Amino acid sequence: MSAAAQENAVKTGRVYRVLIYLVLLLFALFYLLPLFVMLTNSVKPLDEITGGNMLALPQKWTIEPWFKAWSTAQIGVEPTGLRPYFINSLLMVVPAVAITTVLGALNGYVLTKWRFRGDTILFGLMLFSCFIPFQIVLIPMAAVLGKLGLAGSIPGLILVHVVYGVGFSTLYYRNYYAAFPTELVRAAMIDGAGFFRIFWRILLPVSGPITVVSVIWLFTNIWNDFLFGSSFGGTSQPVTVALNNLVQSSQGVKEYNVHFAAAIFAALPTLLVYIVAGRYFVRGLMAGSVKG
Amino acid sequence: MKLTKLMATAAIGAVLAGASSAEDVEVLHWWTSGGEAAALNVLKEDLAAQGIGWVDMPVAGGGGEAAMTTLRARVTAGDAPTAVQMLGFDIKDWAAEGVLGNLNEVAEVEGWDAVVPEALQFFSKYDGNWIAAPVNVHSTNWVWMNKSVLDATGLGEPTSWEEFIAVLDAMKANGVTPLAHGGQAWQDGTLFDAVVLGLGDDFYKSALIDLDPDALGGDKMVEAFERMAVLRSYVDDNFSGRDWNLASAMVINGEAGAQMMGDWAKGEFLRADQVPGEDFVCIRFPGTQGAVTFNSDQFVMFDVGENTTAQYAMAKAVMDPVFQSAFNVVKGSVPARTDVPNTDFDDCGKKGMADLADASANGRLFGSMAHGHSVPAAVKNAIYDVVTAHFNGEFDAQTAAEELVNAVESTL
Amino acid sequence: MTDQDLKSRLQNWIPKLVLSPSLALTLVFVYGFILFTVYLSFTNSRMLPNTDFVGFANYERLWGLRAWWVAIKNLAVFSSLYIVICIGIGLMLAIFLDQKIRGEGMLRPIYLYPMALSFIVTGTAWKWFLDPGIGLENTMHMWGWESFEFRWIKDRNYAIYTVVLAAVWQTSGFVMAMFLAGLRGIDNEILKAAQIDGASNWNLYRRIVIPLLRPAFLSAFVILSHLAVKSYDLVIALTGGGPGRATELPATFMYSYTFTRNQMGTGAASAVIMLMTIAAIMTPYLYSELKEKR
């Protein structure tokens, strides 16, 4: 697939190519700019930031802010740094992504290969849930979590993220499986294979690319969530809430270098996911989700 | 396989975290910056010495707005924290919902009625019952000036609006930004408070506390907005959205002459190794000497059923004179009880404590509108809208006064 | 009943059983909550939900508020610019990247990574960069370009455009990926045939490639428009709704009325209007999407 994709019939002249490279590089600079600001200012001493040029490279390099952000910055009453919150985030994001992806894959499988009357309407209903503004569910969600006894806990947060993620994962898998030949599934049915057996043996082995897309999407959304984390996190708040506490502290000295270092820490997992899995991302999108 | 393991770990972690025993207090607050949090840690250790655990729930942002959203979710879930940091009318609003505890038992033993100023009790009590323990009193009608910039004008510390304008003009002539200000709604409101108070105690009270439409839309209010426009002319063009501490920094390094801000600004000066009286001066907003607009952080106690031991202990610890002194020295504010010795405070702090006692005794202690201590949040924000719109040049003074009446009415 | 019968009946039920948990969750947590919000919008709820019914009063009040009109106008400006620019940049970058570019493997993640970061993370950096006192303008002055001026974020007539800028930064790379995926999915034989017929590059793209990308356009439009309606953290991180209230959007309006102004009923009414807007965009899309799949 990738070999074919590299082959493009369009030919361009030399001048055009130079221009194209120029534009591409300019945009790369545009996208990198905030990251550059964050990185350079996270390794400067504070007085160089408040008194100087934010785009300048540090005159005196220091790694101190990074250590401080990770382990001694004042997040709450204790100077814990981001570390414990980072762990909370991991405990939340891994199960939430796993559950949502599994549910989405099974839903997609049912909606394309085991169709029944009214299934498209049900799918439409689920899809619409991707688009509701999260602020409006805050209060009723709090009431429901309270009733379930899950308020202020990691399982509660996992439930919330599964609920609002499953529409996306279902969409991805449904579109992907729709392109998969139904005849193969039929043949297996005639051979007497059951529902799960067909899924396990026939569809799962080809689900790699779309799983990457689904995982990337869910992972970044859930990891970056602040609203739910601060409202329902209770004593196990995720790292975004900690970062916000650090950055937004209202009355007191703002240690911008520590803020930037902390921001980069909080962004590391998602950055890593994009860099490692990014190359499969376009391929995954290609394989289904943007086809009509 | 891995998945189930992780789930199990998560579940166990949650159980451990959720299992705050009867001997714990869970505290929702937004004191997350270094000094404040360190000061709060004193309280935590006081409690630890009594065998009471502290479950920390910090949520910063928007001067407590984010924390209030969290609180709403927690209360709706039937899972309210033990104690919540809160300001002014928010306390009354929550009390009206009937979800707060009752501290009368502690208050009686400790004699709070005698040592907490009347104006504070208005917030700490609801229907005659103590519901909150006040931690501090911030006064908001301060002006912080760079001493050498002030000296360069050849004028003394201003004591009236006219003198203040003269000083600002002289600073402008010397090529310094006269007024360091950050264009955020609450900072605009802080200026507005001082300006209104400068036009008289009665005017402040009728306009911003009693919300009398005649005062809100009257000639005096037009004059107040005109004065706001005058102040605006001394602010640099780059003010919008600026954090207050960056404005303080402008005064500290002599880029600007003065900042109108609550006493938390002092912390910025002290941390920059500035000495009160030598490097910077703290004066009341000219024309408001003797009067104080305040806000007060309080720990509001939620209804926790029968297990009140830890909650009472915390309330008691908050009101302990030693803690009140230690905390407020760091925070820049003054103690919420009037019988705390002023020995550990710097000159500005001592002045603040004396001013508070005077103002309280003379009935000139008023809740700050900008900081939610004169009207409920809905009204406060409606006033913000008009003040900010005017300060950014959307209304002239006349229109602003008219809009102010409309805005306030629309919330009632 | 034979064993065989039972088994096949079970087989019939399994798919529905598998689907039901997700469906139940969606019904309760999405549609139940939407109904609850609609209900709230007809009550006099302030601090917490209550049952004091007031009819359409909240809606009347909402449309009488200047701030709500500002939010609506801002949304119109913001969303139209944001969608058009994102699609423009995304399409351009995708076409350029598709020209057998050396270093595509490097460039693609650079274009994509902003999508991975939340504005809680990048907000401060953006705010700094746009701030004339410490950001771009100041830097240009330090580099000797004294007359350089860039103070949009401080100007209430232009501040909304800085929100567009930051929003474009965040999502245009993602749109690029969607178009790139679309481009890579086009059969090269079609292009070759057209080239043999002597079509210029420009015509090739205009007449053949871009029409073939229709599904990608549609997906991009839907994703971008719903992101625009939901935009919240972006505004909070960049301008806090200011200067004044010049960058208020419906999402920030809804949040502040519901959670900081203790006027939950009015907040709920604005949420209902937002939901209706989203539904108006989504329903035709969903309808055509699901129809085609027959």
From TrEMBL, chain A:
PROSITE patterns: ABC_TM1. One of its GO terms (cellular component) is plasma membrane. InterPro entries: MetI-like, MetI-like_sf. Residues 86-277 form the ABC transmembrane type-1 domain. It holds the Pfam family BPD_transp_1. CDD domains: TM_PBP2 (cd06261). It comes from the Bacteria. Belongs to the binding-protein-dependent transport system permease family. This is Glucose/mannose transport system permease protein.
UniProtKB/TrEMBL annotation, chain B:
Keywords: Signal, Transport. GO terms for cellular component: periplasmic space. Residues 1-22 form the signal peptide. It is found in: Periplasm. Pfam families: SBP_bac_1 (PF01547). Gene3D superfamilies: Periplasmic binding protein-like II. PANTHER family: ARABINOSE-BINDING PROTEIN-RELATED (PTHR43649), BINDING PROTEIN COMPONENT OF ABC SUGAR TRANSPORTER-RELATED (PTHR43649:SF28). Belongs to the bacterial solute-binding protein 1 family. Part of a binding-protein-dependent transport system for a sugar. This is Probable sugar-binding periplasmic protein. It comes from Celeribacter halophilus.
TrEMBL record, chain C:
It is found in: Cell membrane. The keyword Kinase does not apply. It is a multi-pass membrane protein. Gene3D superfamilies: MetI-like (1.10.3720.10). InterPro entries: ABC_transporter_permease (IPR051393), MetI-like (IPR000515), MetI-like_sf (IPR035906). Keywords: Cell membrane, Membrane, Transmembrane, Transmembrane helix, Transport. Residues 72-287 form the ABC transmembrane type-1 domain. It comes from the Bacteria. One of its GO terms (biological process) is transmembrane transport. Its main location: membrane. The chain crosses the membrane at residues 21-42, 75-98, 110-130, 158-183, 204-229, 264-287. GO terms for cellular component: plasma membrane. It holds the Pfam family BPD_transp_1. Belongs to the binding-protein-dependent transport system permease family. This is Carbohydrate ABC transporter membrane protein 1, CUT1 family (TC 3.A.1.1.-). It comes from Celeribacter halophilus. The lineage of its organism: Bacteria, Pseudomonadati, Pseudomonadota, Alphaproteobacteria, Rhodobacterales.
